[in-house]
Amino acid sequence: MSELTVRPYTEDLFDEVHRTFTSAFLRDPESADADWFRSDMEPDRISVAFDQDELVGIATILTREMTLPGAVSAPVAAVTTVAVKPWHRRRGALTRLMHVQLHALHEQKGEPFAALWASEGSIYGRFGYSVAAEYASVSIPSAVPFRPGTNTGHNRVREVPRTEALPLMTALHDKLLTRHPGWLARTERSWRWRLWDQPRARNGASMLRFAVHPDGYAFFRTRNNWEDRGPASKIEIQELVAATPSAHAALWRYLLDMDQVREVTTSVAPNDPVLLMLHDPRQAIRRIVDSLWIRLVDIDRALPLRKYSAPLDTVFDITDTFCPWNEGRWRLVIDPEGTAAIERATTEPDFALDITDLGAVFLGGVRLTDLAAAGRVTELVPGTVTRAGRAFLGDTAPHCLEVF
Ligand SMILES: CC(C)(COP(=O)(O)OP(=O)(O)OC[C@H]1O[C@@H](n2cnc3c(N)ncnc32)[C@H](O)[C@@H]1OP(=O)(O)O)[C@@H](O)C(=O)NCCC(=O)NCCS
Question: How many domains does the chain have?
């Protein structure tokens, strides 16, 4: 591990960086789309690991903002493109890259917390990340009825070309952003990346199609299939966003009722309204998967960013071996408006936990009491974990619309 160094990215390294990415993610370097790769990079936020003179690994940060409980949007270090060449794995390159990233965020007072999607669930806990949000991968058979009385409103859903859909979608997404913990604010660049639609991005399905409604939109692909009994095609919803329950129902009804379609699939928040609209809820097959992993870089800068659900005055004891500046006792005071203040404490703690557990509850979707039941949080004064858990729990389950 001693010969590994981490340096900033320079443009002359692009080909080798791209090669590292494609080899680690098992993509064909000839066919991988370098433009797509480049479009999602912020050159001054790429860390590059070298073993002597050989580039062996990369980790990058995207400058994004994420909605937190309490309808606030805060800067987040969105960690992505983490890759180590297969022939250099398990020699500490990722550990060095994670160390450099988190220590730089702390020392330079960068984003107070970091977020990522993990390719494998056992990688990032050791660096202080924990699952803070999940999504449901859902399959619903076409034409299934909604509950009697489900209101789809009077406005029609229609399909329009991408250029017509884009301004409607960006305006609606901006308007709804702070309603949804876990959503990321989008720039023109991030929209372009989200709607990337080159043939390779389609994975055998159709190009993107855009359905709009005055209070909602969906973009989706179709996957054609014919069987002996007739058409059995599939709609794959990439994103469905609605401002009202009737817009949500109307968009889903439109997609579920399309001719030739047998099944509609998507990834939604585990409590997405469509799951509560179905007449026979068992028709929706769900698979729950972790989405956002959160890492608090600096407890004292991160915790006051969000709002809380109940007043609180508590002291807790933190362990954090990877970022030791967070370790020790902290007093967290939350006022009746849900605003938090945090300071170092010297009094006895009410409960003890690891930095990963604070990351888990940061978006308001994980219960502190569940972490205690799993033995991850140790209650030292009876009743304090339940009280703190109520304060951390949000009104809306966190969900992230996009993998980054
Ligand atoms: C995942 C990856 C970045 C790890 O890089 P690496 O340089 O081999 O990691 P390190 O040598 O620093 O390993 C650090 C620790 O994590 C563990 N670890 C690393 N990758 C792991 C994996 N995929 N599964 C389980 N444990 C893993 C190591 O065993 C080591 O454990 P230890 O500290 O107990 O010894 C690399 O294997 C890779 O590029 N994989 C393919 C692309 C990918 O999945 N990237 C992550 C995208 S989110």
Answer: 3
Write the residue with the smallest CA distance to atom 28 of ligand 1: 90
The pTM assigned to this predicted structure is: 0.96
Length of the chain as a residue count = 404
Domain with 102, as residue range(s), is 4-111
Indicate the DSSP class of residue 207.
Answer: P
Per DSSP, the three-state class of 256 is: helix
Sign of the Cα torsion 243, 248, 254, 260 reads: positive
We report the CATH number of the domain holding residue 234 as: 3.40.630.30
The rounded distance, in Å, linking the Cα atoms of 58 and 357 is 27
DSSP bridge pairs for 158: 212
Distance in angstroms (rounded) separating the CA atoms of residues 374 and 354: 13
Q: How far is the CA of 89 from the centre of ligand 1 (A)?
A: 7
Q: What is the DSSP letter of 29?
A: T
Which of 289, 323, 347 is the last residue before a domain boundary?
289
**How far away, in angstroms, is 122 Cα from ligand 1 center?**
9
Q: Is 234 inside a domain boundary?
A: yes
- Render pLDDT for 205-254 as a digit per residue (tens, 0 to 9): 999 999 999 999 999 999 999 999 999 999 999 999 999 999 999 999 99
What is the distance between the alpha carbons of residues 325 and 315, in angstroms, rounded to a whole number? 17
> Which ligand 1 atom is the nearest neighbour of the CA of 85?
39
Residues 301, 337 contacting (CB under 8 angstroms): no
Q: What is the mean pLDDT of residues 375-379?
A: 98
Does 183 lie in the same domain as 81?
Answer: no
